[in-house]
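A protein record in our archive is deliberately plain, so that people and models can read it alike. The record that follows is passed on verbatim for readers who wish to inspect the format.
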Amino acid sequence: MTNSVPEFEDADCILITGSNTTSSHPLIASRVMKAKEKGAKIIVIDPRKNHIASLADIHVKQNLGSDVAWINGLMHIILKEGWQNQTFIDERTEGFEDLKKAVEAYTPEKAEEISGIPKETLREIAELYAKSEKSSIIYCMGITQHITGTDNVKSLANLAMLTGQIGRPSTGVNPLRGQNNVQGSTDMAAIPNKYPGYQDVTNDEIREKFEKAWGGPLSPKVGLTVVEMINAIEEGKLKGLYILGENPMISDPDSTHVEKALDDVEFLVVQDIFLTETAKKADVVLPGASFAEKDGTYTGTDRRVQKIRKAIDPLGEAKPDWEILCLVGKALGGKGFDFQSPREVFDELAELTPIYHGIDYDRIEKEIIHWPCREKDDPGSPYLHKDGFARGKGLFTPIEYKPPAELPDDEYPYQLTTGRLPFHYHTGTMTRVSPSLTHEINEAYIELHPQDAKALGVKHGERVRVSSRRGAIEVKVLVTSGIKQGVAFIPFHFAEAAANRLTNSAALDPIAKIPEYKVCAIKIEKINGREG
């Protein structure tokens, strides 16, 4: 996130897209509600009328995968009306003329044709966002989980720079991370192309620094992403897999394909706090400790580094993840695994990672610090790009609209999108063992528009078979006008009717390699004689 979570409260306009904020990030949603109480205008662009949309001043249901088109449409209108921040553009950016030329074609009429958002509403959104003193963008995986996910994010950055809505408090482009330490894990290089602190594995000087610190040679090659690993097993190129705190049997696309790969891999290790669907397939299960059983730090979605303290010692044979990894590293003959505490791990991190260099355990005991924090007297950075961008001037990137990889046809006439519910989290590993949460809901369902339900001859509560080119599941029907006609929604928490049996693992963003979870073609068939 370019800005910090508390800043949302003081925004004048908040544009939310690809985020069911009240369900997936309720504490952040509370800040949005406070902003609304103070008079902020809330804009939600989402194909479902979810809870956050019910609070919006403007809510529009876009066609799935049309984000580049409607964002380009907003920029076309802003430029035509002269609402851009030309001073910011001239002083802080480059590539403006190329962007201007690219969005010329995205007239309100064309943007409406592609996105389904009425041109009058597009103009209203453009004016609100551009003219407000402090406008903030919030987005989540509804934007990124597309073959154009990288394009979508760059387009939002274009919009923020065009209007100068970045580099100041309560503005910016703010992705909401999916779990409490996703930002921290990425900072620590749980990605295949970076060392901690987003330092390139292909950079010889950086690699030598880490080789010296860790006491051994390191590969200059970029590694594989999650989907690529599964494919590599199928191709016979990957023989062993170590999965830590992840449940790809439920969370990864085309889970039938994933299951076959996990059955075929020669050696599978899973480290987790529960015996998940994935752990049941493992050759070795290593029992990790829960958050309440370990010390350490989390780095939150807004780059805030926070200390956590254990409430109890790990139960049974469980150990903190850092300790397990050190034991495995030593057993493999590795060097640099002699840490005695999380503090020692963090000290090494701060030494090797410029954006964390000024942070230590004593400081975060007393202070709230957001990285980058490069020196001991640096107060940290609640918001980014105050005086300039990391590359110098911000670069506008012209983006052309591309349709989703899989569109409806005669055999698969509906579009599926997936997401979360407020009562369950991700694959349900923790929430579905909670009696109070399972009491709220413990079964998958499919949301259908009333006109679609009528065309299919199904009623609320009846069961249907939902199929894609990859698999099929059976679920109950929930009829609601909150979903866009022609679109269906299924939450992905439920292993017995896993939505990801349907999603498309073959459609990846070419840059980020993220699969297109949010759009795939399906057919829906009534199961005669069976009602829920």
